[in-house]
Design goal:
The chain is an alpha+beta fold and 137 residues long. 25% of the residues lie in helices and 28% in strands. The chain is elongated, with a radius of gyration of 25 Å.
């Protein structure tokens, strides 16, 4: 009886290891099926739209910023264009892919919420220093 259960166990384990198909996700979010015969195929044919992952409406418009504050920030290179460049660099995308969702801005500090390449991120500005929210360095 022990031999039967032992053979059943070995057989079931060998069957589970014989299936070598794996599903992986690419950098752009599509899923790929890697087959045991060294071939592959896309499971998701279309790329997901980067804007749609942030659940933005089709008629979404970025909020207006205070021009007086933005002109004062030009000296320290901390305008919204400079912040967008930093976000694009941090998230390895183009500046056009960075969308400003909301802003809370004062002369000394500000909090910006962006959709960067399909990911919602928050950046803070204290004076002219810009840093991602939750990071120290």
């Amino acid at each position: 009886m022990k031999t039967f259960f032992y053979l059943l166990l070995v057989f079931s384990v060998s069957i589970s290891f014989a299936q070598n198909n794996h599903i992986v996700k690419t950098d752009d979010g599509r899923r790929v099926l890697l087959k045991a015969d060294y071939t592959w195929e896309y499971i998701d044919i279309e790329k997901p739209a980067p804007d749609k992952r942030c659940n933005l409406a089709d008629d979404f418009v970025e909020p207006e910023l205070n021009n007086k504050i933005q002109s004062q920030l030009k000296k320290g290179r901390a305008t919204i264009d400079d912040v967008k460049k930093k976000v694009a660099k941090d998230y390895d995308c183009e500046v056009e892919d960075v969308i400003l969702l909301s802003v809370s801005e004062q002369k000394v500090k500000a909090v910006y919420r962006f959709c960067a390449n399909g990911t919602k991120v928050t950046y803070k500005r204290n004076g002219h220093a810009i840093i991602e929210s939750g990071k120290f360095f």
